[in-house]
Amino acid sequence: MVRLLSTEGRVSGCQMAGGQYGTIAEILSNQHWADLVTGLAVIGGSSLVVAPAGTRVLQVMAITPQGSFMVDPSELTFSATGVSVAPDGTVTGVVGGGTVNIVITARPTIDISVIITDA
To answer: What is the pTM of this model?
Structure first.
């Protein structure tokens, strides 16, 4: 949690160019965002269709007691059986499909598996 002081800038209204928007006054907790996550979800569900040689980018949401948010793929580790998956979560389909496992790199006990089918 971070406490911010009020802004002191040269910007008024909705203008965004130049100026100082805030100052970090005190860091109340050095808790990593992944410490709050209770589960992961993939947009589209845990069973997705990817045509052979087709691709699909997996979009992963983190679930916390306060709500959910999209996770940057660089914070995740993807592994696959039967299909290929790139570090950015792009799955390439094959005949017969396969499974993609996704974990939070900083907290590998939080994971989700996604079944990839070809039809």
So the answer is: 0.75
